[in-house]
Write a structure and sequence with these properties.
alpha/beta
Length: about 250
């Protein structure tokens, strides 16, 4: 439950690209339901439906950017709620909890491009579209990947028709209180290796907020360093520029 005012920096990057921005505040504690995340995802779809009815000249597709539980809601839109119209997803440190829908180690998970790439990942491996800097997980500081063959293939593949492969990009920080590693962005990517994964080490969960997440940030102390947080924040903005520039 983070105020929209905490995301002005990300909003302004989208406006730089002359795109329409619709910001939605979501109370993840309401309504009381076994799965209010899907309710919120359907609300996003309804907003887009209403926009199209009011402004029929708008494109019949939209990009979704969400942070924390908002990141999971963005994934739900691309997976099952509105997959034909979501053109790209940027899920910033998504949390797959209450309920678990993408990171079940036993049983079924909702799809995320799972038919688009041979699944060679296991529960202990990173998929083929993961990008790091450094020699290993402990050395990861920041990732800047522009114009790689993998990303070009994702942006260009299937440009015509309904089977276009959309970019679903996940970022993962060092986390914070209440975010188990078994259900964070890295866990999602391991089970859905066609997603694109960026590891933002030395940065905390609230790093993508302009002012630490406000009241919500008080419940989750910052675990990042000044350098790591700055690089992660700028990387998120670069990812938006890449998505909208492709």
């Amino acid at each position: 439950m983070i105020s929209l005012s905490e995301y002005k920096g990300l909003r302004d990057v989208i406006l730089e690209k002359h795109h329409l921005v619709v910001g939605l505040f979501m109370n993840v504690l309401w309504p009381l339901s076994t799965n209010n995340h899907r309710i919120h995802a359907r609300d996003v779809k309804k907003v887009f439906d209403e926009l199209l009815s009011m402004y029929p000249h708008l494109p019949n597709s939209y990009m979704v950017c969400g942070h924390s539980v908002g990141g999971k809601i963005a994934l739900l839109l691309a997976s099952i709620i509105d997959p034909k119209r979501v053109s790209a997803v940027l899920a910033l440190d998504p949390v797959d909890l209450n309920p678990i829908e993408f990171t079940n180690r036993k049983g079924s998970n909702l799809p995320l491009l799972d038919d688009d790439i041979e699944n060679t990942a296991t529960n202990d491996s990173i998929g083929p579209l993961a990008f790091f800097s450094g020699d290993g997980h402990a050395d990861i500081v920041h990732v800047v990947v522009k114009g790689t063959d993998e990303q070009q293939a994702i942006s260009k593949e299937g440009e015509k028709g309904e089977n276009k492969r959309i970019p679903i990009i996940l970022t993962c920080t060092d986390g914070g209180f209440g975010i188990p590693k078994a259900h964070n962005a890295e866990a999602i990517h391991k089970l859905h290796p066609a997603t694109i994964f960026y590891r933002h080490a030395h940065a905390g969960h609230m790093v993508y907020c302009d002012n630490g997440g406000g009241a919500a940030g008080m419940l989750m102390p910052d675990v990042g360093t000044k350098e790591g947080s700055g690089k992660a924040r700028e990387s998120a903005r670069d990812l938006i520029r890449q998505i909208l520039g492709s």
